[in-house]
Amino acid sequence: MANLINGKEISLRVRGEVKAETADFIQKTGTVPGLAVILVGDDPASKIYVGNKKKACLEVGFNSFEHILPAETSQADLIGLIEKLNADPSVHGILCQLPLPKHIDERAVIGAISPKKDVDAFHPANVGKIMIGDYDFLPCTPAGVMELIRSAGISVAGKKCVVVGRSNIVGKPMAMLLLHENGTVTICHSKTKDLAAECREADILVAAVGKPKLITADMVKEGAVVIDVGMNRDENGKLCGDVDFSAVSEKAGFITPVPGGVGPMTIAMLMKNTLTAAKLAKNY
Ligand code: L34
Question: What is the full DSSP assignment across the chain?
Answer without folding.
Answer: -PEE--HHHHHHHHHHHHHHHHHHHHHHH----EEEEEEES--HHHHHHHHHHHHHHHHHT-EEEEEEE-TT--HHHHHHHHHHHHH-TT--EEEEPSSPPTTS-HHHHHHHS-GGGBTT--SHHHHHHHHTT--S---HHHHHHHHHHHHTT---TT-EEEEE---TTTHHHHHHHHHHTT-EEEEE-TT-S-HHHHHHT-SEEEE-S--TT-B-GGGS-TT-EEEE---EE-TTS-EE-SB-HHHHTTT-SEE--SSSSHHHHHHHHHHHHHHHHHHHHTT-
